[in-house]
Amino acid sequence: MKPTEDEVEAAVTAFEVFLRDRQLKMTEQRRTMVRVVLAKRGHFTADELYRKLLTDGESVSMATVYRALALLEEGGVVEGHDFADGQRRYERALDREHHDHMICVDCRAVIEFTNEQIEHLQHEVAQGSGFTLKDHSLQLFVTCDEWHASGACERRSQREARRSEAQA
Amino acid sequence: MKPTEDEVEAAVTAFEVFLRDRQLKMTEQRRTMVRVVLAKRGHFTADELYRKLLTDGESVSMATVYRALALLEEGGVVEGHDFADGQRRYERALDREHHDHMICVDCRAVIEFTNEQIEHLQHEVAQGSGFTLKDHSLQLFVTCDEWHASGACERRSQREARRSEAQA
DNA sequence: ATATCTGCAAATGTTTTGCACTTTT
DNA sequence: AAAAGTGCAAAACATTTGCAGATAT
Q1: What CATH number matches the domain at A97-168, 3.30.1490.190, 3.40.50.1860, 3.30.300.130, 2.60.40.1180?
Q2: CA-wise closest residue to B168 among B9, B78, B56, B57
Q3: Are B145 and A132 inside 8 Å of each other by CB?
Q4: A110 and chain B: CB distance < 8 Å anywhere?
Q5: Which strand D nucleotides have any atom less than 7 A from protein CB atoms?
Q6: How far apart are CA A152 and CA A147, in angstroms?
């Protein structure tokens, strides 16, 4: 799942090319962010990434994180999502197929899914109205009933929180 | 399309019942907001609603608009959406069937659509993973190619803007 | 060299909140 | 009278920006 060392370095190089094409520069901060971001499992906010970098002893500012995140998104290193909770969330885009998200409205757990038929229908809908589909955003807000009954839901969200904190 | 006078008054009454059930009070501001909101076509932000109320000579504060909007949403008078552009958008929920949105990434025009199959598949996906679907959010980001070629796209977005301003 | 970056702190824009006062019930 | 609502101004947030100094090309 996690990209190998080589894959990460290849991504760093690819990002450097992306930057050069637009007359932008590769910097220590940007290079570090590519590496850190690709090592991450799950979703993260700008602030979470910033804190992780600080913990790692890197020298960055929040402003740089935001500025870089925009570039990483354009460069295809990360993908950004809006889960309607006030802050943008990112996940690494390398080696990951497209997917949508289910969000538990009780514990905020995020579960990924893909559905070919839905994907296909989206194109049909857009074309049917004379448009070209460029992108989409689909979130299913759900409750995980049995989990809640058993308390597993809370345990899970705590576990996830700990994990993403720990490994980042 | 626009609800009749009677429908609006029925909605005001229904909202009053909703409030009473939760030991909340009906006020002049809330009553006015129900009426204004139900007369609106299209989408609006909290700020747009606030300005409309001021223009109408109503006495409200931004804080009250936000507080009321949350209640109107819970009470089913409006529906809120997150189009990933930094501010929440609302539309009246009365007499409107459920629909999703296509947003033109060039001119920000919003086009509504419904697709039964997609709706159905969403439930299947959630249930298939053992969850209960409570809500969903689907946006298709599109470009309206011919419109742009002809300039119709810009004209349309201007028209829409004017209309929603005018009639509100 | 020179264009681009960075950090900082200040600004932004939206939404929320504390509090004293007003209005519903 | 008691409980809830309101306006105001201040706070809270996430995010962006101006600028002077630092860094990549």
Answers
A1: 3.30.1490.190
A2: B56
A3: yes
A4: no
A5: 3-10, 13-18, 23-25
A6: 5
The beta-carbon neighbor of B82 closest among A82, A143, A144 is A82
Question: Other CB atoms closer than 10 Å to residue A91's CB: what's the count?
Answer: 19
The verdict on domain A1-96 having CATH code 1.10.10.10 is yes
Domain edges within chain A = 1-96, 97-168
Model's pTM, two decimal places? Answer: 0.80
Q: Confidence band (pLDDT; 50, 70, 90) for B24?
A: very high
Over residues B23-46, mean pLDDT: 96
Q: Tell me, what's the pLDDT at A94?
A: 82
Residues whose CB is less than 8 angstroms from the CB of residue A19 and which lie 6 or more positions away in sequence, other chains included = A25, A26, A30, A71, A75
Per-residue pLDDT tens for B125-156? 999 988 889 889 898 988 876 666 555 555 55
Cβ contact (<8 Å) for B129 and A105?
Answer: no
